[in-house]
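WARN no homologs supplied; continuing
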Amino acid sequence: MANTSSRTLRLLSLLQTHRFWPGVELASRLDVSDRTLRRDIDRLRELGYPVTSSRGVEGGYQLGSGGSMPPLVVDEDEAIAMVVALGQTASAQSGALADSTLSALSKVVQVLPTRLRRRAEALRAATVDSPFAEAPEVEASVLGAIAQAIRDSERIRFSYTARGGVAAGELARRHVEPHQLVTVGRRWYLLAFDLERSDWRSFRLDRLTDPLGTKSLFRRREIPGGDAAAYVRSGLSGRVQGHRLVTVVEASAADVEKRIGRWTTVEDLGEGRCRVTGEARDIGFLLLGMGLVGAPFTIEEAGPEVREAMASWAARFAAAGEDGDSGGGSSTAATVG
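OK structure emitted
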C-alpha cells in the first residue's frame, strides 16, 4: 500500500479525472478500506478541496467547483502539455486575451513542483514562435528533454529520420549543440549546431527520438542573422515548393510587424510605408495575413496562382458585401501591380 502522502495525491488525481466516483470503486483503485478512504477524503477537505459525498448503495464522491484552488496535481507530460498549450494560445492572440493567457501560464508554472517548474520554464525560455503549418505529434518527453538541454547548454545525441522517412533516407544518430526550439505554425523544430557537419541545422521534432544528454557543456554560438525563427523559416522556404507574395503596405512597419510580423518579413520603407514578404505552402495563409494588415497595399511580386486566388477571394467578399449591404462601411484597397 502506498504511504499516506502519495495515496492522497493519487486520490486527488482520480477525483480530477471523473465527475463522480462510486465509493467502492474508488477504494478498490486505491487498494484501501472504506474507512481509510473516508480519512483521506477528510484530509483533502482540510487542504481546501471541495469534495462532496453521497451515502447509500449508490454513494460516492466527486470534486466540486468553487472555493480556493489548491496546488495542481499533474504528471510531467501534463505539465509540459499545459505550458505548450497556454504558450501557443498566448502567441496566437493579442490584447486582453493574450494578457490573460500569459497570466494563467505564469500561475500554472508557479504552482508546479520544483522539478517540473524548472523543465516547464526551460521549455518557455527555449521556444520562439513563427506560425504557419500543420501539426504532427511530438512527444512531451522529447520537448522537455531538449528544452532542458538548451537551458543547461548541454550537447545531446538523438536519432533522426531523414526527410521522406527511413525508406528515402536513414535513421541516423546526430550529435549537436541545441540552441533554440522554434514553432512554425504548430510544427516544432530544433535549431542546433551539428558537430559532425560543422554547420547549423534545423530538425523536425516529430522525426526526432531518444534525445540524450552527453554531460558535455558548450559555449553558445551566435545564431546566423541573430533570429532563430527567421533562420528556420528561410531554410524551410528553400527546401519546400511554396508560394511567395511581396507587397508594399501603406502603414508603418511597426504597426504591420505587430499584426503579421511572426508570419512575414517586414521592411521599413519610411514615410509610413513598408514592404512585406511572405512565403507559405498554402496560399490562404498569405491572403489571410494581408487581410489582417488592415491597410491598403500594392503587389510587387506574386505568382499567377496567388493572383488568381486573390481575385477569387475579392469576388466572393464583394458578393457577400452586396448581399448584406446596409449602405455603410468601407473597404480595404488592394491593387495588383
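The radius of gyration is 26 Å.
OK
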